[in-house]
Amino acid sequence: SEMLQKICIRNLVRKYCQGFTAEKKVQLQQKVVASAVFRGKKEGYLQSINQPFMDTRLKENDINPKVLQLIQGEKIKYVTPVIKYDRNGFKARDRLLVLTQSSAYVVEMAKIKQKIDYATLKGISTSNLSDGIVVIHVPEDNKQKGDVILQCEHIFEMITKLCMLANKQNLVKVVQGSLQFRIGSGKEGTMVFTVGQEPQVFKAKNGQLTVV
């Protein structure tokens, strides 16, 4: 009886796994990574569990042809609208985040504003609150202007895809209170996270970027 029970369970598991489509397998793999990164750490994660991750939020034909020419040869894996905050004045700007097999691109209309090779990615930071802010940390060299500050509506989806494509899920940090980011030329800025009545992102009087 015990032997038959074990065989029966193995057979049921085998049938369950064989019934998976390739799409569903990818979906579950992403959700497993999201769980490892966010469970018990960031507000809003539990509400995101039953929401399937989209393959992409925008299609290739939504990207300017000039940008497609510039990244020719790299397979586009994911595209989503984001708001990028300037590193100095923190002005909000509408951008696209384009993730390929090897790099992340911050795109403005027909221009590539910043390219981040996954191999050089130093870290990915987000807060433990329900905001959609993410900071992509890059190396301090002449090729990079500084860390990238983005706001994304689909924060769990975007970070999961980014860290999986870069194969650097261990570099994702969920921080409390504040975080430091590199402005460029050896300078650093501070981002402060707090709780309030309405979501806001603004430059405080002390010069810090405040996320409510």
From TrEMBL:
MF term (GO), any: cytoskeletal motor activity
A GO cellular component entry from the record: myosin complex
Organism lineage: Eukaryota, Metazoa, Chordata, Craniata, Vertebrata
Protein name, per record: Unconventional myosin-Ih
Domain TH1: 42-212
Pfam families: Myosin_TH1
InterPro entries in the cross-refs: Myosin_TH1 (IPR010926)
